[in-house]
Amino acid sequence: MKPTFDLGKGLYVISAVLILIATFLIFLKSPLFFQVAGFQQTESPVEEFELEKQQFIDTLVLYDSQDDMEVDLYIESRLKEMAVGYHLQDYQNLLNLEGITTVIVATEDWTGLDTTGLIEFVETGGDLVIAVRPAPQSTFQRVYQQLGIIEYGGFIETSDVTLNPPFFSLEEKLELSGDAFKQSLLSARLHSDATVVAETRSGHPVLWTYRLGEGEVYFFNGVVLEDSYYAPLITWALAETAAPIYPIVYAGAALLDGFPFPTQTTRLVDGKSEKNYYRQDWWLQMQSLEAKFDLNYTAAAIYPADLGEVNSYDQELELYTRELVLLGGELGAREYEDLSVELPRLKQAVGNYPIVSVLDEEEIRTALPVSPTNQTLWESLSEAFLYGTQVTSFSPYAIYGDERDVQMWRDVTDFLDSIQETYDVPYVPYSEMSKRKQQWEQNEYVIDKQGNELNVTLRYFTDHTYFHFVTADKITATSNCEITKIGEQFYLVRALGPQFSIETE
User: Fold this and answer.
1) 304: Cβ–Cβ under 8 A, 6 or more apart, which residues?
2) Where would you find the membrane-spanning parts of this chain (predicted)?
């Protein structure tokens, strides 16, 4: 008997299926989907432990208590960030170096400094860091020679530097120039045994090391203040001496600046309205970048001052916010003219989608797309070396809507490739990076060096506790940590518990 088709029942079945499909599609567009599907960021629990002993003090910072202390304040802040136990002392009162392994000179005036005692300290195995170039004084000619300087003159000004440091996996010299690299140096010619880490294009040394007896001299021939592009050079010297292992955040954030970019519907870009161009072309490229580099975008949203654009803006904001969450990102608010007015409008526009971050203006920094340069690469690597962080922001305002865009996207991809090759930091939503920064700032460590063994004890521990480790020696054993080589004599350490150790030859 042939089956018969009941049209009435068939319509009911088809209607039910269509209703189910429509309901599912609506659910996919609902904020509830992202909660049920687990798109919320998982937080790593923070465990707290008691530290049984204090950080051992083996570093001495010599400064001029009667003079400008900007250099000293920067050195102090950096040592604190690197969890170094140090003692501060006026440079004219150098009395006892017992138990000290590293001395840092943070003053340019050496009048009254016990240079004989310092030289003996280095010759018997101590490390000396000159953190600021000294004033040219003929009375110290013999001392300068013992620190690697054969001849010296007066101060010279420069605005370029060439780096030969063991930073990450850089294979070639990095030449940098411009106003950001202005520096005052002591004109000097070095001993042939000195190892130059950084120098000017004309050959004036900026940073070098020099072996003296059983110890080592690290000489920074300039002045470093906060936010200087030369800060990684001082940090490298400290990592070679006082802080062979130091805590970092190890997380990156990719920000969309001015999101979602209010546009005009009448102006044509590549034959399309701006709105359609951003939806169909620009956003497609951003999705491609996110997929390749796992960027987890955070939107730095600004509500438009022109209320005539509000309805259109709200639609765009809701659309792109849903897209962002699907990509694993989040919606944030950029700190702007009046956040108290802006935030309520943003919250009303996006409904149930949470605004999870407020981004400080300083965090936006230089926005891509820009043509990658040595300076932009160094900015990124400096941030990574100092704190283990990357902040990359994207702005569409350099979009041309013609063949120039092809090169622009290629430049952006090349820039992100170069960062990934030299320091492959995991990108997380900005709110997650902020939590890791907070934990890094509040954490306390005890670093204990016993011969060739380095023992680290943490007060707070999470799954995202990382360190940079600098050593020229071969690592022979580790306990309760994972180590990855990320450069010449340079390692990334992930703690697997509140106590871990590293042993070298």
Assistant:
1) 262, 310, 313
2) 12-34
Q: Which two tokens stand for residue 304?
A: 């438009």
How many whole angstroms separate alpha carbon 469 and alpha carbon 252?
A: 19
In the beta sheet, which residues pair with residue 46? none
DSSP 174-230: EEEESGGG-EEEEEEEE-TT-EEEEE-TTS-EEEEEEEETTEEEEEE-S---TT-TT
Instruction: Look at residue 310 in the predicted model and tell me its pLDDT.
Output: 61
The pTM (predicted TM-score) of the whole model is 0.84
Q: What is the pLDDT of residues 353-381, one digit of tens each?
A: 888 888 887 777 767 766 778 888 888 88
What tens digit of pLDDT does each residue of 69-88 get?
A: 788 889 999 999 998 989 99
In angstroms, rounded to a whole number, what is the distance separating the alpha carbons of residues 198 and 310? 53
What Å distances lie between residue 279 and 249, 262, 286, 333, CA to CA? 34, 12, 10, 21
Report the amino acid identity of residue 160. Answer: D
- Please choose, from the candidates 375, 379, 294, 280, the residue with its C-alpha nearest in 3D space to the C-alpha of residue 329: 294
Neighbours of 150 (CB within 10 A): 12
Cα 357 to Cα 299: distance, rounded to the nearest angstrom: 9
As its CATH architecture, domain 59-243 has 3-Layer(aba) Sandwich (3.40)
Q: pLDDT tens digits for 153-208?
A: 999 999 999 988 666 666 778 899 999 999 999 999 999 999 999 999 999 999 99
Domain 251-434, CATH among 1.10.150, 3.40.50, 3.20.20, 2.160.20 = 3.20.20
